[in-house]
Write a structure and sequence with these properties.
Distance between the termini of chain B: 100 Å
Chains: A alpha+beta (about 650), B alpha/beta (about 425), C mainly alpha (about 375)
Low-confidence stretches of chain C: none
Structural class of chain C: mainly alpha
Radius of gyration of chain B: 28 Å
Order of helices and strands of chain C: HHHHHHHHHHHHHHH
Number of domains of chain B: 2
Helix content of chain B: 25-40%
Shape of chain B: globular
Number of strands of chain C: 0
Number of helices of chain B: 13
Oligomer: heterotrimer
Largest sheet of chain B: 9 strands, mixed
Helix content of chain C: over 70%
Structural class of chain B: alpha/beta
Shape of chain C: globular
Mean pLDDT of chain C: 86
Number of strands of chain B: 14
Strand content of chain B: 25-35%
Mean pLDDT of chain B: 76
Strand content of chain C: under 5%
Low-confidence stretches of chain B: 66-78, 417-426
Distance between the termini of chain C: 45 Å
């Protein structure tokens, strides 16, 4: 066997190169499943039967083997037999006792036996008595023995290590007092509810149900407790899995002795950030609220904004080891069923440990993973999400992320902003065209400058040409290096501005402006024209409402810069061509990225020119919503009626 | 091999990226020139040497002394550099220029090509065609023929007072020919267009170096034999170089010139410019002069008919007078007087028009482009290609008329007493 | 063995494909040739060629609606299996030659205009590289991208044309009959072959929805392409005149050099570089893709992507074959007349003839049976 002799590096190199070349030159059509393409004609009565199969967390507790249980049972049986025989002997002796010394010695023996019994009890792990004790811990049901339940929870939560989990034992008052345990995570719960709504009525209240006659009923203790608790959300469960989920999200679980059902009590009350102004997307005339990190609060904000029974919020957990809750929201009568089903399918097919951010979710569920343009919109404003939902799109929320993700979007959606909704046609159109020209300027201006200076000097007016030549006479670098220096400096300033602590922010900006702008020019490192150019480019890139699109376009700006440097207008033309083809190639959730222009659908009235609100009658066509019309033809019906003071 | 197939897509991308990268780096880099590696030629002058070989003068934009630079010290550099070569052809001199200059010469911003009269008489095609075929060169440069002197002198004496750079003078002057109307804008492209078209003649701007400072025998531009470039009597602090008149060509050879006034009429007929002033002797008092500002509101009505190889041309102009200036005390507002004035103007201008047309016929050139109107008289293109417009033009019968209608007279005349009191009402 | 699958294309895609394929040759030497042939009536020549294209295209599509499948399937049904291969090879060669000739000529123009001095092989290499990338993307992406680029093209053209208006001289179009109306009509019909891009709609018939989409795309596509060419050629004639425009090598470029707005705003000819790049790359990409599609259809392959490197090498080596610019111009003009003319006239007329003969036979049978 040649397992001791390592293969020489050259063989490995040759093999890798050969295989790589082979893969590139010989092509096999990949045997991939069909890509998700949205069909044009919708089946109106399409009701898909999708079962929500929830992910279950993997088992954390080692399975106890049957053998071990059997041995423990045998030992207990043996000992209990011994104990029974010993108790028989003691009974006979107690009957025989007459004198005090005899009673004392019998007491001693009883003490001795009971202490032995205790020792043995402590040494034996308590055999678990519920009927499914061979299953792993999470798949089991709640056992009737309170101590067993507590032992199980201690194992699952690694209790001596995990100091946050509280197992609060108390006794439910009644004619026959019952032992109960309340389990919750300290920090996730609202202490007031626990104290006043759960513990107090159970321990102090009048409980008339727990009588001797009550017991034959199944799970009578649970019924009794339920009748006492004044909390508005209580639920009976009987599987350990549900118990875990409930505890993990902040509810409390009440276990009662001799009951095979536990009660979940809603006690969520963790601290969270209050609703503040939007940090990233600011508007002058729109609403100022923004999402927070807690999923429930966000969904609550959305429901507040769209109070309808049509608004559906499905929740799914994502992440195997640490599940994070993700929520899909859509309007049932509008959103396309196929897109919803596809989103659900993709989310359920995500296998990872932990999802840290909404951006990660996007990277998991987008198609064509190597393409770097953003294919979903992320926003932190509920009014924007509401308007997109009303168009028939779908929103995704993640617990812990104050952003919502809108799918499906097209390229032109990134240039719309909430301000447009509150402005009339001329101003809204002008602003939109300004943003689009901002996109062109941000992408193309340095490239065009470089190609003019290097290749097409005759296009410049003569005076400008002489000015540029003069300005560049004393600069030691060629034009391309100048522009690269300024570009990199600008990007550094922008990135540093994100991390500078607030106190130093103003200082850094002044320093940056003075250093870059003035000193570099006076020191003849760069020429004045370049400074103006880069400033205009930077400003133009900030007009794009979506941050990720702006950073992507910055990358593309560098690409165009190099195209312009190497081949002039020819290079920029070829670069524009390739970029346009690339954009048209992208598909996101079944619709083409450049819809409604790339794949031509009905244009709608919201692309470049923003029609007045009463003219926007149809939804965007490419979303294929169930109902195309959002307004009747006449939206201002009061215009066709008589005014108030003229009615007879 | 599973590991390799998983990163397959990245390998492919890297391959494509490398190919693209090398394609681009190998390609255009060869052929770009940094902006500081070029020298821009502003004006080219062509003279005729003793044995007929061309002497070429280049005027180069000296970038050290351009406007818009925050220079603190006094600018002692000459504004432009003038270099003169002699060679067998135009390209020889271009080689010589490239060998001297530290940078590559570029024809992208050539503003004017100036020929001397002697060189132009031999034909300028040998210079124009290589320039035109040069990839850099754009056809918007102006073409100037120097009336008295060589092109080299012209370039050297060009010292404008209102423009910072000499070539700007030519550019502004030529561009604003609609305001100063004594020549027509002539670009090389237009020249080349008309060269081979069978319907008109090429022309160039006539330039000259002014040496005439004798104001005693001066007469107005519109009187008698008007001036050619270089002959206008003036003195003072202005550019010694002036542009007045038109040089006429047959194909590419220089055959004659038109005076300033004739050129003005040519531009009026072509519709290039609209406003002029006309001065005639007062019909009632021949010692004084009446002047009128006239505007061409409608294009000229030209009809060209052909019968049996004889061409009949009729040119009619309608001018409208906007303001008259009458130093004599006669009231020209009354209908009879006005009609009299109009008739005087009409007669004067018609005479001038016909004189100009006859002169072009004698010279044998058609700068107005009357031949274009003749094209419609042919049945199809083959017949048209067989004809020769210039010979037809020389034997053509030309009639013309210029009608002037006075629309308003600026100030209205209101005389209250016979003595020299004038009440002005507008 | 699975066959090649086509994705759906709509009305706009069809229109755009025809428009680009018909105006691609306009920027090269054919406009000068048109002026040489017909002097002032060049617009009429384009009108006639557009009408001929329209008629033949609509007739083809009309008989195509009786068959499932595309042009090749119909040929097989009407004429037999050998004709399937003949027509397939013929049209594949047509588009391949289109691709090669366009590559060569556009590269020459670009090498002359866009760069100062560059070896033409480098430009051909760049073109072929981008052609292979766009063929990889596929024809739907090309059509969509072309639709996005059309505003640029129209804007640039309109910009230049509007600035040329001060130079118009109506008499440049005279003598009004050009070289004779009858002559010009004949030349127009002969040069209809340059619009043979109309056959694409028949080749890609299964991806269009129904007859009306195809008919509309042929109709609007030919008309828009024809209008564009007529406007441009009339502007060239009006501004420059017949004699001078006969000598132009790159007509649109020289037209653009006349555009003059102001002292400081005058040299726009380098913007026409964008026009050529967009139109050229799209036409070359579409031609290459259709070639590969026909080959895949004839040989029943399942995907065309493996053939792309091969096609690139073929196009590259063929494009560098010609020795100088003039020889390729002569070749192209002769080739257009004969080969494209055959494809435009002969084959469709054969198909029409066979179709109607069959229909007549059926009718005769029905009548005789009764």
């Amino acid at each position: 066997m040649s397992q001791n002799k390592p293969t020489p590096p050259r063989t490995i190199l040759f093999a890798t190169i050969f295989s790589k070349l082979k893969k590139v030159l010989t092509y096999e059509p990949a045997n991939k499943p069909k890509p998700f393409i949205l069909e044009e004609k919708m089946n109106e009565a399409a009701e898909t039967n999708i079962e929500d199969s929830q992910l279950k967390p993997k088992s954390l507790v080692k399975k106890t083997t049957l053998k071990h249980l059997v041995s423990q049972a045998e030992r207990t049986l043996e000992y209990s037999k011994d104990a029974a025989s010993y108790l028989e002997v003691l009974k006979k002796e107690i009957i025989k006792t007459k004198t005090k010394e005899d009673r004392k010695s019998i007491l001693k023996k009883i003490n001795y036996t009971s202490s032995n019994l205790k020792k043995i009890k402590n040494s034996i792990t308590q055999p678990l008595t519920s009927f499914d004790n061979s299953l792993p811990a999470e798949k089991r049901s709640v056992s009737t023995s309170l101590s067993e339940n507590k032992e199980l929870l201690r194992n699952l939560y690694h209790l001596p290590l995990n100091t946050n989990l509280i197992l609060h034992d108390f006794v439910i008052k009644g004619e026959i007092p019952l032992k109960a345990t309340l389990v919750f995570f300290d920090g996730l719960i609202n202490k007031e509810i626990i104290n006043t709504s759960i513990i107090e009525p159970l321990t102090r209240g009048k409980n008339t149900l727990l009588t001797e006659n009550f017991f034959p009923e199944n799970n009578a203790p649970t019924q009794a407790a339920l009748s006492i608790l004044p909390s508005h959300i209580t639920k009976k469960i009987d599987s350990i899995n549900d118990v875990l989920s409930a505890i993990n999200i902040g509810d409390s679980v009440l276990f009662i002795e001799n009951s095979s059902e536990a009660i979940i009590v809603e006690t969520k009350g963790s601290e969270h950030r209050s609703i503040e102004r939007a940090q990233v997307e600011q508007s002058i005339r729109g609403s100022q609220a923004a999402f927070v990190e807690l999923l429930d609060v966000n969904i609550g904000m959305m429901r507040n904004r769209m109070p309808t029974n049509d608004l559906i919020s499905e929740t799914l957990p994502i992440g195997d080891r640490i599940p994070t809750t993700c929520s899909i929201m859509y309007l049932k009568s509008l959103a396309n069923e196929q897109i919803v089903a596809e989103v659900r399918r993709r989310l359920q097919g995500v296998r990872t440990d932990f999802v840290a951010d909404l951006g990660m979710v996007e990277q998991f569920i987008e198609d064509q993973k190597t393409i770097f343009m953003p294919k979903t919109l992320q926003t932190e404003r509920p009014d924007r999400v509401a308007s997109y939902l009303a168009e028939g799109r779908i929103a995704l929320f993640l617990n812990g992320s104050p952003f919502a993700m809108i799918i499906p979007v097209s390229f032109f959606t990134f240039f719309q902003f909430i301000e447009d909704y509150s402005m009339k046609l001329p101003t809204a159109t002008f602003t939109r065209i300004l943003r689009l020209s901002g996109m062109f300027i941000a992408t193309l201006l340095p490239g065009i400058y470089i190609s003019l200076v290097y290749f097409h000097q005759e296009t410049l007016p003569t005076n400008l040409l002489i000015a540029i030549v003069n300005a560049r006479q004393n600069i030691p670098f060629p034009a391309i290096v100048e522009i690269l220096i300024m570009e990199i400096a600008f990007e550094l300033i922008r990135e540093a501005g994100l991390r500078v602590p607030g106190l130093l922010g103003a200082t850094i900006s002044i320093v940056g402006a003075i250093i870059i702008g003035q000193a570099a020019v006076t020191a003849k490192l760069v020429s004045q024209i370049i400074v103006v150019l880069i400033a205009i480019t930077g400003l133009a890139s900030f007009t794009i409402p979506e941050y990720r699109m702006a950073t992507t376009l910055s990358l593309i700006r560098f690409a165009f810069l190099f195209f312009g440097y190497f081949a002039g207008f020819v290079g920029i033309g070829m670069g524009l061509f390739l970029f346009t083809m690339y954009l048209c190639y992208i598909k996101s959730f079944g619709i083409s990225y450049m819809a409604p222009l790339g794949a031509k659908t009905f244009l709608g009235s919201d692309l470049f020119i923003r029609n007045p609100v009463y003219n926007q009658e149809l939804r965007p066509d490419f979303i294929n919503a169930k109902d195309k019309r959002r307004q009747p033809h006449i939206s201002r019906t009061w215009e066709h009626e008589e005014p108030v003071n003229r009615k007879k | 091999m599973k590991r390799i197939s998983k990163c397959n897509i990245f390998i492919k991308l890297i391959f494509i990226f490398m190919i693209l990268f090398f394609a681009f780096t190998l390609s255009g880099c060869n052929s770009d020139y940094d902006i500081t590696e070029l020298i821009h030629i502003a004006i080219i002058g062509v003279d005729k040497g003793e044995d007929g070989k061309p002497i070429i003068t280049y005027q180069i934009a000296n970038i050290k002394s351009a406007p818009g630079i925050a220079d603190n010290e006094e600018n002692k550099e000459p504004k432009l550099n003038i270099i003169t070569f002699r060679g067998n052809t135009f390209s020889d001199t271009l080689d010589a220029l490239s060998s001297i200059l530290p940078r590559m010469p570029s024809f992208a911003h050539v503003k004017a090509i100036i020929f001397s009269k002697e060189f132009a008489e031999d034909g300028i095609y040998s210079v124009i065609s290589p320039v035109l075929r040069h990839a850099d060169f754009r056809g918007n440069a102006y073409i100037i023929v120097v009336n008295n002197g060589t092109a080299e002198e012209f370039i050297k004496q060009n010292n404008p007072t209102f423009e910072y750079l000499p070539y700007r003078y030519i550019e502004s002057q030529a561009t604003l020919s609609k305001y100063s109307r004594y020549y027509s804008k002539a670009t090389i492209y237009e020249f080349y267009n008309r060269l081979n078209s069978n319907s008109s003649s090429s022309y160039a701007i006539l330039g000259g170096i002014n040496k005439n400072h004798d104001l005693n025998n001066a007469h107005s531009l519109q009187e008698g034999d008007s001036y050619y470039a270089g002959e206008m009597p003036r003195r003072g602090d202005t550019n010694p170089v002036e542009l007045l008149g038109t040089a006429l060509f047959y194909k590419d050879k220089y055959i004659g010139k038109l005076t300033a006034e004739d050129s003005m009429i040519v531009s009026v007929i072509k519709g290039d410019f609209r406003k002029t002033s006309v001065v005639i002797p007062d019909p009632n008092e021949p010692e004084l002069y009446v002047s009128c500002i006239v505007v061409l509101k409608r294009p000229a009505t030209i009809s060209v008919k052909m019968e049996n190889d004889k061409v009949k041309i009729n040119v009619e102009l309608l001018l409208e007078g906007e303001a008259i200036n009458t130093p004599s005390k006669i009231n020209y507002d009354t209908p009879e007087n006005r009609r009299q004035l109009e008739e005087a103007f009409t007669e004067h201008m018609t005479a001038r028009l016909l004189k100009m047309l006859k002169k072009t016929q004698e010279i044998g050139a058609d700068p107005i482009g009357l031949g274009y109107y003749n094209r419609a008289n042919y049945k199809n293109y083959q017949e048209f290609a067989k004809s020769d417009w210039i010979s037809l033009y020389k034997n053509a019968e030309i009639t013309g008329k210029t009608v002037l209608k006075i629309r308003s007279s600026g100030l209205s005349w209101n005389k209250t007493e016979e003595k020299n009191e004038v009440d002005k009402t507008e | 063995m699975s066959t090649l699958k086509l994705s759906r294309m709509g009305l706009t895609d069809g229109i755009i494909l025809i428009v680009f394929l018909s105006i691609s040759r306009f920027f090269l030497i054919t406009s000068t040739e048109a002026i040489k042939l017909s002097a002032g009536l060049a617009w009429y020549l384009y009108l006639i060629s557009t009408l001929v294209t329209l008629i033949i295209g609509l007739a083809l599509i009309n008989i195509l609606k009786n068959f499932e499948g595309d042009l090749l399937a119909m040929t097989e049904r009407l004429l037999g299996k050998s004709w399937f291969y003949i027509i397939g090879i013929y049209y594949a060669l047509l588009f391949l030659s289109n691709c090669t000739v366009l590559t060569r000529k556009f590269s020459e123009n670009i090498a002359q205009v866009g760069f100062r001095d560059i070896d033409i092989i480098v430009v051909i290499f760049l073109y072929v590289l981008i052609m292979s990338i766009s063929t990889y993307f596929g024809i739907e992406v090309l059509a969509r991208g072309a639709y996005l680029l059309i505003p640029f093209i129209i804007f640039l053209t309109a910009f230049i044309l509007v600035l040329i208006i001060p130079l118009f001289n109506v008499h440049n179009l005279a003598p009004w009959q050009g070289t004779g109306i009858g002559n010009v009509t004949l030349y127009g019909m002969a040069s209809a072959g340059a619009n043979s891009g109309v056959i694409i709609i028949a080749i890609l018939a299964p991806s269009f929805q129904d007859f009306i989409t195809k008919a509309k795309s042929v109709f609007y596509g030919s008309i828009i392409g024809g209008l564009y060419k007529m406007t441009c050629i009339t502007t060239i004639l009006l501004a420059i005149g017949v004699e001078r425009s006969k000598e132009m090598l790159i007509p649109f470029y020289e037209l653009a050099s006349l555009a003059y707005f102001d002292k400081s705003f005058q040299r726009f000819e380098d913007l026409t570089v964008f026009l050529w790049i967009f139109v050229g790359l799209i036409s070359i990409g579409v031609s290459a893709w259709v070639t590969l599609y026909l080959v895949a259809r004839m040989l029943k392959l399942s995907d065309i992507k493996p053939l792309i490197p091969l096609l690139s090498i073929i196009v590259f080596s063929t494009a560098t074959f010609a020795e100088n610019a003039l020889s390729i111009i002569d070749f192209d003009l002769g080739f257009l007349k004969i080969y494209h003319g055959l494809s435009m006239y002969v084959f469709p007329i054969i198909l029409l003839f066979m179709f109607y003969k069959q229909k007549l036979k059926l009718l005769f049978k029905k009548n005789s049976a009764v």
